[in-house]
Specification:
Layout: E1 2-8, E2 21-34, E3 44-46, E4 52-57, E5 63-68, E6 71-76, E7 85-88, E8 92-95, E9 101-107, E10 112-114, E11 120-123, E12 140-147, E13 150-153, E14 167-171, E15 175-179, E16 182-187, E17 196-199, E18 203-210, E19 217-218, E20 221-223, E21 226-229, E22 241-248, H1 254-259, H2 262-265, E23 266-270, E24 274-278, E25 284-286, E26 289-296, E27 310-317, E28 323-334, E29 336-340, E30 346-349, E31 354-361, H3 370-374, E32 391-398, E33 403-407, E34 458-462, E35 489-490, E36 501-510, E37 517-524, E38 529-530, E39 532-539, E40 542-549, E41 568-573, E42 581-589, E43 595-597, E44 607-608, E45 621-622, E46 634-635, E47 695-696, E48 704-705, E49 711-716, H4 727-730, E50 739-747, E51 750-751
Parallel strand pairs: 2-6, 11-12, 19-28, 21-28, 46-47
Antiparallel strand pairs: 1-2, 1-6, 2-17, 2-18, 3-6, 4-5, 5-8, 7-16, 8-15, 9-14, 9-18, 10-11, 10-17, 12-13, 12-16, 20-22, 22-26, 22-51, 23-24, 23-27, 24-26, 25-26, 27-28, 29-50, 30-33, 31-32, 31-50, 32-49, 33-34, 34-43, 35-41, 36-40, 36-42, 37-38, 37-41, 39-40, 43-48, 44-45
Length: 752
């Protein structure tokens, strides 16, 4: 047997990539001579000619070289028949690459064929695994590699498939004259084998050296790098997958890249745990490199990726074993964001461009107390039961980093029990109306059932509006007669020049506890005219002030240089509080809200609160009989609608009675607060002392979406005929406060 070595350098790379990648191949001929008559023939003979070598040097000075004998001859006769005969391959590698090299062995054929083309000697390991043994069976040959002092008969890969199985040796550092641990071996039965010359197809040695300091090449470009996931790591639906577009530099020539199926040449992995299936069509070869798509099913990742994490994207080259890497390139973002009740404005930032489905539900009115739940007037178990928040949804196109403000409604406060100390029930955050205490039963010290507060609406509104906090901390010390110098006011105006319309001022304070807050003064025209429909709520550091500016009367006292109408909102505080201050004041037009879900009204002794609705909030639900002797003295106000209601954005509050006894001989139950909404619901406003009304409910707030901004919208209330009631079981929180949820329904990288 003789081995003739030929070294070949393939020019597979354009000059632009030479500095970072070096690949060198050497071709070897393998042959066996069988003699049956000689007992003196040398078993192994290396070529008497000089060794052959080849090398390549990049423009940056990185190099790799291979050196080996030109030929080795194996002779088999009776003296070495049926024995494993080995010979050192004497393959030498040198490289100055900072990340070393890899050396592979490939061939188009693994058999040794007789010169007669009929007889063959088989390779000992034609499969895909290393065989750990140091001897051969009869009539076989093999290439041995020693690793960890164990001899392996390695597989020989196909010519274009460089895998770890046919890796002979490697180094992660520069090497000089490093001998590869390779031996050739053959075992032939000279008594049964046909004498003569056997040879193989060329054996190809491939040396790869990488001059990259990390051992990988960078991915040129990654499009659709953000992957939206649900909180548990699932994709948006069970059928949703994600499509990436990847561009990598081309280190081989164009014909090699385009000549093979792309999924046979490359493998894409994400985070070392999930394969991304390459799309075989649509690849593009350009000056940037090779561009192709892959599709990943993140529902199959184990363990799952979670929003907030990042992962590497790796492209392995199947033929050559080098790697492209983009570290932490894949970013997992929340495909669904839920905003629960906090009693504060909340910021929504879209993390990925796409279409979002927005779902909102207003808050319920105040809960029944245990005593109220036990009260079954006319056999009903809904005495003082709250109205249920309404539902609104639709689809909004959003770009990455778009911002919106989210106001989630809070449920109203429960009304007091009969006989308990009286209090007015506070309406819920974002426009719930206040419920009023029940009046004393004439001639006794027993109080009636109090009415519950209405639930606040939930809405989504624009983010970019002016903040007028620049006027902060101007305490009123005027002596010009226009104001009382004894008043202590926060943030003396003028605040803002606003067009005519309905507004909600959102004021953020510091060091202003409820006990020190004495109320709101809402003016325009430097205090010479009052704003109308003013309603104030305070929740922690936030104060919400609803008002209507009609422009009547016209402003006549504008300060110099002010175009008017110089809207002024001032907070009156106790004179002892010198630490209170305002950090932000914004004016939202209620008509700019893009999506609103109405709040439910509070319950009263005669009626369940009206549910928040769609185009119209619902009326309170009467619990008793219309034949009751007092029925004519009950009132059931309407819910708000699209153009009118108890207030623009807020539900009407029941009037408070103080300590006034009614001019009636029967008990007067407390009245409920209405629900907030696009327009809030109505509440009974008649005087307790002079009116014949002894019981009243309150209406729910309306919902709405702006159809020129929101697509596929819907808004309705609980129990509306023909409507899907699923949201109240799947979306409404257990605490019955409001909720707003954003969920991606489609985006650029989405693949179904």
């Amino acid at each position: 047997m003789s081995i003739k070595n030929k070294l070949v350098v393939k020019s597979w790379f354009s000059s632009i990539f030479m500095p970072i990648f070096l690949l060198l191949t050497s071709l070897l001929g393998f042959s066996v001579f069988i003699f049956i008559y000689s007992n003196t023939y040398a078993v192994v003979t290396y070529s008497s000619e000089t060794n052959t070598s080849t090398s390549f040097t990049s423009g940056q000075g990185y190099s790799v070289s291979l050196t080996m004998p030109k030929s080795v001859t194996f002779g088999i006769d009776g003296t070495n028949s049926r024995q494993t005969v080995k010979a050192d391959a004497r393959v030498i590698v040198t490289t100055n690459s900072v990340t070393g090299y890899k050396l592979y062995l490939t061939s188009n054929s693994k058999k040794l064929t007789h010169i007669n083309a009929l007889n063959q000697i088989n390779y000992a390991n034609p499969g895909n695994t290393s065989i750990q043994k140091s001897s051969l069976d009869d009539d076989s040959w093999g290439v041995f590699v020693k690793r960890n002092n164990v001899n392996y008969i390695i597989p020989i890969c196909e010519s274009a498939q460089l895998t770890e199985e046919c890796l002979i040796s490697k180094s992660s550092v520069p090497v000089t004259n490093e001998k590869a641990p390779i031996e050739y071996g053959v075992n032939v039965n000279s008594e049964t084998a046909v004498p003569g010359h056997y040879s193989s197809a060329g054996l190809v040695y491939t040396a790869i050296a990488n001059s990259s300091t990390t051992g990988e090449f960078p991915v040129t470009e990654l499009i659709n790098s953000k992957v939206p996931l649900l909180a548990n790591g699932n994709q948006l639906t069970s059928s949703t997958k994600h499509r990436f577009k990847i561009t990598i530099p081309i280190l081989e020539n164009q014909s090699d890249v385009l000549g093979d199926a792309i999924d046979k040449r490359y493998k894409v992995t994400i985070g070392n745990r999930l394969d991304c299936k390459i799309v075989t069509n649509g690849r593009v070869y350009s000056a940037k490199g090779l561009t192709f798509d892959c599709i990943a099913d993140f529902n199959t990742a184990s363990p799952r990726f979670l929003p907030g994490q990042k992962a590497d994207l790796v492209v392995d080259t199947i033929p050559y074993g080098y790697t492209y890497l983009k570290q932490l390139a894949v970013e997992f973002v929340a495909g669904e964001k839920t905003f629960n009740y906090t009693g504060t404005p909340q910021e929504m930032v879209s993390e990925i461009t796409g279409n979002y489905r927005i779902e909102a539900m207003g808050a319920n009115g105040g809960d029944q107390t245990p005593a109220q739940a036990r009260e079954h007037w006319y056999g009903s178990n809904e005495v003082l039961a709250p109205g249920i928040g309404g539902y609104t949804s639709g689809v909004k196109a959003m770009f990455e980093n778009d911002k919106y403000m989210v106001f989630v409604g809070g449920k109203g406060q429960s009304g007091h029990d009969r006989g308990a100390a009286p209090y007015d029930a506070k309406g819920g955050f974002n426009g719930g109306g206040n419920g009023a205490s029940g009046l004393l039963v004439p001639g006794t010290n027993i109080y009636s059932w109090g009415g519950a507060g209405g639930g606040g609406s939930s809405d989504v509104r624009p983010y970019e509006i002016d903040d007028y906090v620049q006027f902060h901390n101007h305490r009123d010390r005027r002596t010009d007669g226009q104001r009382n110098p004894s008043d202590i006011l926060l943030n003396d105006g003028p605040w803002a020049n606003l067009p005519i319309g309905y507004y909600q001022a959102v004021i953020k304070t510091v060091n202003l506890p409820d006990a020190d807050f004495e109320g709101v003064l809402a003016y325009y025209d430097l205090g010479n005219a009052s704003l109308s429909d003013v309603y104030t709520q305070k929740f922690g550091d936030y104060i919400l002030v609803y008002f209507n500016y009609t422009g009547i009367p016209a402003a006549t006292h504008l300060p110099a240089g002010n175009t008017g109408p110089a809207i002024e909102i001032r907070l009156k505080v106790k004179t002892t509080n010198q630490a209170a201050d305002i950090t932000s004041m914004k004016f939202y037009r209620t008509t700019d809200r893009i999506l609103v879900a109405g709040g439910g009204a509070g319950g009263s002794y005669i009626a369940k609160g009206g549910n928040g609705g769609g185009a119209t909030g619902m009326k309170p639900s009467y619990l008793g009989s219309t034949g009751d002797a007092m029925y004519s003295r009950f009132r059931f106000p309407n819910g708000g609608n699209q153009i009118a209601g108890g207030g623009a954005g807020f539900g009407a509050s029941a009037p408070t009675h103080g300590a006034i006894y009614p001019n009636v001989s029967v008990e007067s139950a407390g009245r409920a607060g209405a629900g907030g909404g696009w327009f809030g619901g109505y509440a009974e406003q008649s005087d307790y002392s002079t009116s014949p009304v002894i019981g009243a409910g309150a209406g729910g707030g309306s919902g709405r979406y702006l159809n020129y901004i929101i697509r596929n919208g819907t808004t309705y209330g609980y129990g509306e005929a023909g409507k899907d009631m699923t949201p109240w079981s799947t979306l409404q929180p257990a605490d019955k406060n409001g909720i707003v949820r954003f969920k991606l329904v489609d985006y650029l990288g989405m693949e179904n």
